[in-house]
Amino acid sequence: MAKKSAIEKNRRRVKLVKKFAGKRGRLAAIANDESLSMEERFQARLKLAALPRNSSKTRIRNRCEVTGRPRAFYRKLKLSRIALRELGSKGLIPGLVKSSW
User: Quick check: keyword Ribonucleoprotein in the entry (predicted)?
Assistant: First the structure.
């Protein structure tokens, strides 16, 4: 199980990303629009830099829904490999069969 503080920090980041997604998108569009003047684009970049760092989507860490583990994460299932194996062994994931040879 991951530290609760790390899990909560990531949850706060997810909330901030959702909150600032529209504003960040509009400013990025202005900053990347080459038909506008250099000053307008520069002002948009300054406003973009003034937004909270944790409102950037790249700062979110994919974590297991069960354990909070940040490594060996399967995006499709939102689980780590360890949680996937445990739940699969218990028969809680439909269609998943433990291999044996």
Answer: yes
